[in-house]
Design a protein that fits this description.
By secondary structure, the chain is mainly alpha-helical. The protein has one domain (2-61). Helix content is 77%, strand content 0%. The protein has helices spanning 2-12, 17-21, 23-32, 38-53, 56-61.
């Protein structure tokens, strides 16, 4: 559960290059934490992919 909360907290933080560079690691860590149902884990992983597929500077300007 703590890992999932840390991942969510990281996503709520200001977007930076480190998050963009290591977003796949967040997805992998999320997959190993069973605090969420498989469906919710996949939804959160998809959200991470969508966010990090966008241009970092555009996300920072939002």
């Amino acid at each position: 559960m703590m890992m999932t909360l840390r991942i969510i907290a990281r996503l709520l933080d200001y977007p930076d290059g480190e998050l963009w560079a290591h977003h796949q690691e967040l997805i992998e860590a999320l997959a190993q934490d069973d605090a969420l149902s498989p469906s919710l884990r996949e939804q959160l992983a998809q959200f991470i992919r969508q966010q990090c597929a966008q241009d970092l500077l555009d996300k920072q300007a939002e």
